């Protein structure tokens, strides 16, 4: 996504039908602090406590 031209309508055509969760994710994944926290979590052991702390901090909820 880093190579995507944010001015290109074509690059974001999928967002025309996006719901609130989709837009929130697009915003969050570009956040520098989120990216750093994710890198830290990825580098250390993914204990359930560390993953839980990450989810709480960023307000993430995963469901199928």
Describe what this molecule looks like in 3D.
This is Transcriptional regulator-like domain-containing protein. It holds the Pfam family Trans_reg_dom. This protein is mainly alpha-helical and about 60 residues long. The protein has a domain of about 40 residues. About 50% of the residues lie in helices and about 0% in strands. α2 runs antiparallel to α3. It is elongated, with a radius of gyration of 14 Å.
Provide a compact summary of the structure.
Helix content is 50%, strand content 0%. The chain is mostly helical.
Architecture blueprint of SSEs:
Layout: H1 20-28, H2 32-43, H3 48-58
Protein name: Transcriptional regulator-like domain-containing protein
InterPro entries: Trans_reg_dom
Domain Transcriptional regulator-like: 5-62
What is the mean predicted local confidence, pLDDT?
83
Low-pLDDT sequence parts: none
Order of helices and strands: HHH
State which percent range the strand residues make up: under 5%
Which bin fits the share of residues in helices?
A: 40-55%
Protein name: Transcriptional regulator-like domain-containing protein
Organism: Bradyrhizobium nanningense
Pfam families: Trans_reg_dom
Domain Transcriptional regulator-like: 5-62
């Amino acid at each position: 996504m880093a190579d995507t031209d944010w001015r290109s309508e074509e690059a974001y055509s999928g967002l025309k039908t996006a719901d609130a969760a989709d837009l929130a994710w697009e915003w969050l994944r570009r956040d520098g602090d989120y990216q750093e926290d994710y890198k830290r979590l990825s580098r250390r052991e993914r204990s359930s406590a560390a993953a839980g702390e990450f989810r709480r901090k960023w307000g993430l909820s995963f469901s199928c």
